[in-house]
């Protein structure tokens, strides 16, 4: 077993206290953060162990958002036991049918499954936001700064960072006070489980929402439809954007907000994935950069992105985009 998937030392005692003394702990997954996940298997039952070690992680936000989602009738993992001092949480296990792999194995189901994920967002956005910090201008700008802080140096560029911020501030101005819905912030095909025996929206198990904020309804939609980890056909993106608008009846300007937040998210991801390589020793994230840049280029072509597009044209040469030259 790789050293980063060895169960934490406190896990056996935690499981014993939780009534799982007879369980085996198996590696399940890590992610781009310091969190790790293990499957806990006992006779006739199983669960998922989240290891969210301090000081890097705090499971409390995850538990609070899960409680909110469950209260609204969505399938978030129920908490079976928790030791917050050690960052250990035992969670309901949604199984192994992750959206990405299900679609890879059955491409004919792609449109239907994406429709379910869009219907879930429309239903969620029919409720007021949870009690969460706002997704405000400062947060947007901190995130897009990751591109100038990490990607630009990695490709040998010195860029106009102040102009970059100013361009984003101008573009984002129409959105910065729209904090109307719960934004899960990492809503994509690797964070959705298809729960056996349940159909439609009720069959979608939600994961990885500990960073949720109160923000604009377009953010999670573009997160799903411009997925950094898998290609989403443009025809599906267009159909699902129309489906959401028909179901949720968002305010005027939603389509512009969709492309704007797509650009914001993709610029952030370019920076994050570069940082995961440079700082955290995770080079596999570089393989996603060409896809993310392709989304970003489409976003920047929209009229709402004119000030940001002008900055990119002046500061990031075409041969430096796409991520192919970063390594």
Description:
With 327 residues, the chain is α+β, with helices and mostly antiparallel strands. Strands 1-2-3-5-4 form a five-stranded antiparallel beta sheet, covered by helices on one side. Strands 6-9 form a two-stranded antiparallel ribbon. Strands 7-8 form a two-stranded antiparallel ribbon. A hairpin with a 2-residue loop joins strand 2 and strand 3. Helix 7 packs across helix 9. The longest helix has 25 residues. The chain is globular. The two termini are 28 Å apart. The mean pLDDT is 93.
How do the strands and helices of this protein lay out in sequence?
Layout: H1 11-17, E1 24-30, E2 36-42, E3 45-51, H2 60-71, E4 79-83, E5 88-91, H3 99-105, H4 110-124, H5 137-154, H6 161-172, E6 181-183, E7 192-194, E8 204-206, E9 213-215, H7 218-225, H8 234-248, H9 254-278, H10 289-300, H11 306-315
Antiparallel strand pairs: 1-2, 2-3, 3-5, 4-5, 6-9, 7-8
Percentage of residues in helical conformation:
40-55%
Percentage of residues in strands: 5-15%
Instruction: Write down how many β-strands occur, each being a DSSP E stretch of 2 or more residues.
Output: 9
Overall SS class: alpha+beta
Rounded to the nearest angstrom, the distance between the terminal CA atoms is: 28 Å
What's the main sheet like?
5 strands, antiparallel
**Rg, Å, rounded:** 20 Å
């Amino acid at each position: 077993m790789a050293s980063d998937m060895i169960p934490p030392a406190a896990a056996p005692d935690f499981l014993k206290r939780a009534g799982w003394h007879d369980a085996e702990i198996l590696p399940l997954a890590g992610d781009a953060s310091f969190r790790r996940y293990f499957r806990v298997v006992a006779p006739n039952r199983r669960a998922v162990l989240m290891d969210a070690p301090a000081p890097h992680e705090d499971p409390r936000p995850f538990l609070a958002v899960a409680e909110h989602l469950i209260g609204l009738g969505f399938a978030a993992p129920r908490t079976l036991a928790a030791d917050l001092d050690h960052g250990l949480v035992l969670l309901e296990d949604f199984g192994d049918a992750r959206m990405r792999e299900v679609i890879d194995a059955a491409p004919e189901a792609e449109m239907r499954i994406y429709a379910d994920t869009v219907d879930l967002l429309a239903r969620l956005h029919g409720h007021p936001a949870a009690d969460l910090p706002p997704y405000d201008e400062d947060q947007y700008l901190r995130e897009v700064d990751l591109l100038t802080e990490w990607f630009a140096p990695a490709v040998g560029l010195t860029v106009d960072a102040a102009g970059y911020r100013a361009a984003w501030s101008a573009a984002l101005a129409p959105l910065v006070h729209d904090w109307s819905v719960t934004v899960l912030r990492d809503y994509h095909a690797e964070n959705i489980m298809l729960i056996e025996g349940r159909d439609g929206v009720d069959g979608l198990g939600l994961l990885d929402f500990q960073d949720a904020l109160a923000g604009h309804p377009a953010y999670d939609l573009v997160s799903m439809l411009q997925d950094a980890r898998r290609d989403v056909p443009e025809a599906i993106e267009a159909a699902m954007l129309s489906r959401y608008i028909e179901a949720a009846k968002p305010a005027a300007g939603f389509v512009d907000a969709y492309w704007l937040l797509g650009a914001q998210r993709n610029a952030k991801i370019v920076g994050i994935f570069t940082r995961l390589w440079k700082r955290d020793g995770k080079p596999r994230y570089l393989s996603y950069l060409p896809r993310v840049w392709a989304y970003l280029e489409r976003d920047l072509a929209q009229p709402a992105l004119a000030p940001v597009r002008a900055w990119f044209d002046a500061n990031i040469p075409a041969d430096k985009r796409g991520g192919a030259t970063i390594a």
